[in-house]
Design goal:
Helices cover 26% and strands 27% of the residues. A hairpin with a 3-residue loop joins strand 16 and strand 17. The protein is globular.
Length: 572
């Protein structure tokens, strides 16, 4: 790495590009009085053709009373290089950080060359010498052409449930242009919540040891997740495009509340939501929403030359209507009342005013689909959190034997009551998941109508369910609008973990649902999208275990769609 002398650091500290919150403002900073560490790695994200976000976090060891003050400032130098050996520097600058932003650093480096691979690192000049971060690799986007794109997508990394082997495997994948994280990057629960028992068994319990609700809590949880070396390696391997789902704030969140938020004991939802968003923007390599937009307005667009536009959605905190939940509606009702309650629930679900995105984002998405398609982009890719295709449960009362049903209920343990409700629902021909787009059918039809009007070639990437999907997207008239690929989880358990010992669940789903070509309820891993001018292909990969750091990777399935045959899915 190009050596940082005191003279060079002083030059860099006097200027350089950076986000307004981090810039040195032309002041020359003295060496930091003490040591610092880079405990949370480095990351890049939100790459455009001429710029990219670079991220790190410094951990100062405050050795003097002066440096112990909450407003102590650390000057961090960033450098961008042409080569992995960090010799040929192309840009450098400095940013300041402090406790006010939890010692995170986020720099928007501009003036880069399109479609170019770069490497980067950070340093801090201290009174005990220069302390350097690990290095990372990033890449800018093309401005034109149809060069193929190789994108990893993944979601749902609950720390207590197991080792982040999927992240480690992703860091070893060759020629990755971008990593797309579709949400549930972290989870909000304490040791008595989802994943708590698994965490105790594996020695991976959440920090802090309670459900997170405050800014300090969310910051600490982000710090814990980014202390994981496998996740650090994945962040350093390629630029990321990130969006949140619900657990970055609270389970089943929506604009005005969340299933896992109790205002009586946990305060106002808006305050908790704002603090969760603040911590996310501090700790993730995402470009902050433009001045004048809500801090949670995380929807944005990325163009990969003439090949594709990736439209990253925000489906939780800015527009989503109030939750309608089968668990809430069916709790404590008699079996004889199940059908009537389900009918009334679906009347509410089908209300035309229900929205997943909100009016502002719906308008933005329609405009972006149209401008992308008319501008000659071949594919329109949605980075989407929850399943878009229509999906009903198979009637498990017919497809499972009494012994299998008893075994599933017993194997579910504390989730046995959920299994019993699931069995009742599965006989009613109703949507299986109202937290997904099935709970917002009018909003889904508006999205399909916008795609049709634009002439878009829609490829939707989806997380959330901890299971693998290959789906056709079909509107209410029966016309194909595109395809959807749902990834499994990094660690969170899927339906196969709930229905333990039941074989053939994936085929049952595919047989029940015309929109579902393939469903895999088991395992953990990641998926890879390969886009060319003619095809969009997804391969699904699993890691052999998440309870041990020694693992292997296997390809489990692959599907592709043709540009000239929208809505088709062929195994590969």
């Amino acid at each position: 790495m190009t050596r940082l002398t005191r003279r060079r650091l002083l030059v860099l500290s006097g200027g350089g590009a950076g986000l307004a919150a981090c810039q040195t403002g032309g002041k020359v900073a003295p060496p930091f009085a003490g040591k610092v560490r880079f405990d949370h790695g480095v990351a890049s994200g939100d790459a455009l053709s001429d710029r990219v976000i670079l991220w790190t976090r410094v951990t100062p060891e405050r050795v003097t009373p002066e440096r112990a003050r909450a407003d102590a400032v650390v000057t961090v130098v960033w450098q961008v290089f042409e080569d992995a050996g960090l010799i040929r520097e192309v840009q450098a600058g400095a940013a300041q950080t402090s406790a006010a932003r939890d010692y995170t650093v986020k720099v928007d480096v501009t003036g880069l060359t399109p479609a170019r691979e770069y490497f980067y690192a950070f340093s801090v000049f201290t009174d005990v010498g220069v302390i350097a971060s690990p290095s990372g690799r990033t890449r800018t986007l093309a401005t034109s052409g149809t060069r193929p794109v190789r994108a990893v997508f993944l979601s749902c990394s609950n720390y207590p449930f197991g080792q982040f082997n999927a992240y480690d495997a992703v860091s070893r994948e060759p020629d990755v242009d971008v990593i797309i994280h579709l949400g549930d990057y972290l989870y909000e629960y304490g040791p008595d919540g989802y994943g708590g028992e698994a965490g105790k068994a594996l020695g991976r319990e959440h920090i802090p040891p309670y459900e997170i609700t405050t800014l300090a809590d969310y910051r600490a949880r982000h710090a814990q997740y980014k202390s994981d070396k496998a996740l650090q390696r994945a962040h350093a391997a390629a630029p990321w495009i990130c969006t949140w789902d619900d657990h970055e704030s609270a389970n089943n969140s929506y604009r005005t509340g969340a299933q896992n938020h109790n205002s009586d004991t946990e305060g106002r939802w808006n305050k908790r939501k704002q603090q969760a968003v603040q911590a996310y923007l501090e700790w993730m390599p995402v470009r902050d929403p433009a001045t004048g937009r809500a801090s949670a307005a995380l929807w944005r667009r990325f163009d990969f030359g003439d090949l594709a536009s990736v439209l990253c959605l925000e489906t939780r905190l800015t527009g989503r209507s109030e939750e309608i939940s089968w668990n809430a509606r069916l709790a404590d009702i008699e079996p004889a009342a199940l059908r009537d309650v389900a009918r009334d629930t679906l009347q509410d679900v089908n209300a035309p005013g229900r929205t997943m995105l909100g009016a502002a984002q719906e308008d933005w998405l329609a405009e972006q689909l149209a401008s992308s398609a008319t501008g000659g982009k071949i594919w329109q890719v949605l980075a989407n959190q929850v399943i878009m295709a229509r999906a009903e449960f198979p009637d498990f009362n017919r497809t499972l034997t009494p012994a299998q049903i008893e075994g599933a209920i017993a194997g579910a343990g504390a989730n046995g009551a959920i299994i019993k409700r699931l069995l009742g629902l599965s006989a009613l021909d109703v949507p299986s998941n109202l937290d997904a787009w099935d709970g917002f059918p009018a909003a889904r039809e508006r999205l399909y109508a916008a795609a049709k009007s634009a002439g878009a070639s829609l490829v939707t990437l989806t997380g959330d369910t901890h299971t693998g999907w290959a789906n056709r997207l079909v509107d209410a008239s029966g016309e194909a609008r595109g395809v959807e690929f749902g990834c499994t989880s990094v660690t969170s358990p899927g339906l196969g973990d709930i229905l333990q010992g039941v074989e053939g669940v994936g085929q049952m789903f595919a047989d029940t649902n015309e929109d579902v070509e393939w469903f895999d309820p088991d395992g953990n891993g990641y998926s890879i999208l390969e886009l060319t001018a003619e095809t969009a292909r997804v391969d699904f990969f699993k890691v052999s275990t998440i309870t041990d750091r020694n693992y292997s990777v296997s390809r489990t399935a692959g599907f592709q769609t043709q540009k000239q045959a929208p809505g088709t899915l062929n195994p590969v």
